[in-house]
């Protein structure tokens, strides 16, 4: 595969924010569009399923690993700024993106301060926080399908709603994104970034490995999952090394060398309890991969 290094039996726990995960049969970190296409072609020839991983947030990987090719996007991190537009590759971290926006005096991204993961993952799920969301600032997205074909999607194509998008079609990989921002006052931009980051830190969101919120809120039903699970007394519940922390009932943290099955079993316990006692079927925000049963 040219100069692209293909790694066999790569441990994935270092590639997820939960710090959990078995080995990938094959693993690579492409640096360009051509290298991504090489990866996809390699998978086709060898009849391997392809999995893309960015920052590894909102993700639980089985301890049995993944019998396929995992493409980590961390080296797809080129950025270009044209006045109030940022063109950015999908593997760029939100942290790096924030720093560029501040440096270029661009406002509109402050809501994302402190979000883990990459811009690709944030655009994929329309990440939102502090009254902002990516659907408001994303102008264009270049996507690649598994035939190696590149296509540009624009606002009307995204089909954004609460934590949903057209990008959740498994046949599409987000390669590059164009964001439309506004010029702003540097002091105000920095102040808002700092305020949001400090708020996250006060809530102890960085203290333990986690995948962020496990379940989606349902605003049609006025369902805020963290509030519901807290009212049901679920904080402190644990399976093995996986725990619902006292600071957020919609989080599961890796409190003590948790196994993937610990987290999965705790997720299923919450789902069953809520359905049995409240008649509510929770919708997962976290994605499970590498598991063989049908509950994932």
Topology:
Elements: E1 7-11, E2 23-28, H1 33-45, E3 49-53, E4 59-61, E5 66-72, E6 79-82, E7 85-89, H2 94-103, E8 106-107, H3 119-125, E9 128-129, E10 132-133, E11 138-145, E12 150-154, E13 172-180, E14 182-183, H4 186-202, E15 210-213, H5 225-231, E16 238-239, E17 242-243, E18 251-254, H6 260-278, E19 287-289
Parallel strand pairs: 2-5, 3-5, 4-19
Antiparallel strand pairs: 1-2, 6-7, 7-13, 8-14, 9-10, 11-12, 11-13, 15-18, 16-17, 17-18
Structure characteristics:
25% helix, Uridine Diphospho-n-acetylenolpyruvylglucosamine Reductase, domain 3, 19 strands, 27% strand, 296 residues, 3 domains, Uridine Diphospho-n-acetylenolpyruvylglucosamine Reductase, domain 1, five-stranded antiparallel beta sheet, Uridine Diphospho-n-acetylenolpyruvylglucosamine Reductase, domain 2
Report on the architecture of this protein.
- Helix content is about 25%, strand content about 25%.
- A hairpin with a 2-residue loop joins β16 (about 240) and β17 (about 240-245).
- It is of the alpha+beta class and about 300 residues long.
- The chain has 3 domains: about 5-70, Uridine Diphospho-n-acetylenolpyruvylglucosamine Reductase, domain 2; about 80-200, 2-Layer Sandwich (Uridine Diphospho-n-acetylenolpyruvylglucosamine Reductase, domain 3); about 210-290, UDP-N-acetylenolpyruvoylglucosamine reductase, C-terminal domain (Uridine Diphospho-n-acetylenolpyruvylglucosamine Reductase, domain 1), CATH 3.90.78.
- It is built from 6 helices and 19 strands.
- The radius of gyration is 19 Å and the shape is globular.
- The chain has a 5-stranded antiparallel sheet, covered by helices on one side. A 4-stranded mixed sheet has the order 1-2-5-3, with helices on one face.
């Amino acid at each position: 595969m040219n100069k692209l290094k293909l790694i066999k039996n790569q441990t994935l726990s270092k590639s997820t924010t939960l710090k959990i995960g078995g080995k990938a049969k094959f693993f690579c970190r492409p640096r360009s569009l051509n290298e991504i296409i090489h990866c996809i072609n390699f998978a086709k020839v060898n009849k391997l399923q392809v999995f893309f991983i960015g920052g590894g947030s909102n993700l639980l990987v089985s301890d049995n690993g993944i019998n396929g090719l995992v493409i980590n996007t961390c080296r797809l991190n080129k950025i270009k700024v044209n006045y109030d537009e940022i063109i950015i590759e999908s593997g760029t971290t939100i942290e790096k993106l924030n720093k560029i926006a501040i440096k270029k005096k661009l406002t509109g991204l402050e809501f994302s301060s402190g979000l883990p993961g990459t811009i690709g993952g944030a655009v994929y799920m329309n990440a939102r926080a502090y009254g902002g969301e990516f659907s408001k600032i994303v102008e264009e997205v270049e996507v690649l399908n598994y035939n190696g074909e590149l296509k540009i999607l624009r606002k009307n194509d995204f089909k954004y709603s609460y934590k949903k998008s057209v990008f959740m079609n498994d046949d599409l990989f987000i390669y590059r994104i164009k964001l439309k921002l506004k010029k702003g006052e540097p002091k105000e931009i920095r102040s808002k970034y700092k305020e949001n980051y400090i708020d996250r830190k006060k809530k102890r969101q960085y203290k333990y490995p986690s995948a962020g919120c496990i379940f989606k809120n349902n605003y049609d039903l006025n369902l805020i999952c963290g509030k519901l699970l807290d009212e049901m007394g679920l904080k402190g519940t644990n399976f093995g090394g996986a725990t619902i922390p006292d600071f957020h009932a919609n989080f599961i943290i890796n409190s003590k060398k948790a196994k993937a099955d610990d987290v999965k079993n705790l997720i299923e316990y919450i789902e069953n309890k809520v359905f049995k006692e409240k008649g509510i079927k929770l919708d997962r925000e976290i994605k499970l991969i590498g598991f063989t049963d049908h509950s994932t």
